[in-house]
């Protein structure tokens, strides 16, 4: 890897991070370009306020990403694809976790998160495709275990899927999907397998069926049980139709 690949990896990452947010359920607090107010205070302005974060310059965000996440994990020395998977994981969940996971999937001691010479050597000697898959799969399992998964799970799951998709394309060495084809909201459009769509609708239906069964066993009237089933079917169908409408709208929008 060369230093110039940092810019390409960062461009992909910024598609996911977006602009200013200050969600009450996000422990990171005020965030812009994915940079939290805590990191902005550490690297740029010690007494920064939410207004300072909102006015953050992109160059400041790039410098923070380079120092804290890319250079510290020696991403320039990791194989193509693996570098991006580790970089994005570190930004999303912290380099303490991403470094330990990298060591763990390489079957090295994970009592440290430091990416040292032994880690670089092991990564270079390991099948990059298998390494990317292991990192992304572990990342998804960790996110699903968090109590905030019900709030952010849909976005997190989509992000991991997109990172895995892009990383594997980089490993293959062929043309990497162009993120400049992202839709007007700045989110990349990555194909979602029909099986995944069916599983999502099926999960909603299964949950509704289980709820209806519990209501029936609890002695509720049949009209209540029927209402639960009808509402569940409506939600599942509506979600499926909305996904297809949104997908078609994204593809019709100019880059």
CATH class of the largest domain: Mainly Alpha
Task: Name the average pLDDT.
Answer: 77
How are strands sequenced across the largest beta sheet? 1-2
Largest sheet: 2 strands, antiparallel
Strand content: under 5%
* Element-by-element helix/strand order: HEEHHHHHHHHHH
Going by helix content, strand content and strand pairing, the class is mainly alpha
Ends distance: 29 Å
Number of helices: 11
- Estimate the global geometry from the Cα principal axes: globular
CATH fold assignment of the largest domain: Chitosanase, subunit A, domain 1
Number of domains: 2
CATH architecture of the largest domain: Up-down Bundle
| Strand count | 2
Brief account:
The chain has helices at residues 5-17, 37-43, 50-54, 58-71, 82-93, 95-105, 117-124, 128-144, 149-172, 194-217, 222-252; strands at 31-32, 35-36.
Keywords:
about 260 residues; mainly alpha; Chitosanase, subunit A, domain 1; 2 domains; two-stranded antiparallel ribbon; 11 helices; about 65% helix; globular
How would you describe what is shown here?
It is a single chain. This protein is mainly alpha-helical and 255 residues long. Helices cover 65% and strands 2% of the residues. A two-stranded antiparallel sheet has the order 1-2. Strand 1 (31-32) and strand 2 form a beta hairpin. Helix 5 crosses helix 6, helix 5 runs parallel beside helix 8 (128-144) and helix 6 crosses helix 8. The longest helix is centred in the C-terminal third of the chain and has 31 residues, at 222-252. The chain is globular. Mean pLDDT is 77; it is low at 180-218 and 242-255.
């Amino acid at each position: 890897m060369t230093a110039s690949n940092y810019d390409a990896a960062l461009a992909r990452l910024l598609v996911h991070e977006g602009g200013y947010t200050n969600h009450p359920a996000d422990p990171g607090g005020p965030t812009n370009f994915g940079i939290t107010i805590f990191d902005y205070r550490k690297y740029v302005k010690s007494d920064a306020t939410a207004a300072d974060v909102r006015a953050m310059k992109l160059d400041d965000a790039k410098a923070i990403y380079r120092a804290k996440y890319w250079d510290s994990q020696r991403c320039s020395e990791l194989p193509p694809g693996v570098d991006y998977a580790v970089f994005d994981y570190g930004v999303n969940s912290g380099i303490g976790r991403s470094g330990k996971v990298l060591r763990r999937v390489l079957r090295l001691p994970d009592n440290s998160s430091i990416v040292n010479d032994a880690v670089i050597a092991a990564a270079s000697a390991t099948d990059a495709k298998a390494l990317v898959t292991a990192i992304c799969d572990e990342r998804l399992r960790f996110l699903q275990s968090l109590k905030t998964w019900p709030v952010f799970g849909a976005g997190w799951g989509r992000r991991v899927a997109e990172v895995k998709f892009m990383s594997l394309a980089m490993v293959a060495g062929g043309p990497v999907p162009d993120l400049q084809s992202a839709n007007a909201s700045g989110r990349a459009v990555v194909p979602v397998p029909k099986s995944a769509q069916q599983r999502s609708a099926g999960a909603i239906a299964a949950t509704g069926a289980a709820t209806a069964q519990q209501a029936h066993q609890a002695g509720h009237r049949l009209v209540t049980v029927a209402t639960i089933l009808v509402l569940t079917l409506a939600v599942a169908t509506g979600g499926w139709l909305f996904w297809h409408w949104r997908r078609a709208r994204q593809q019709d929008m100019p880059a």
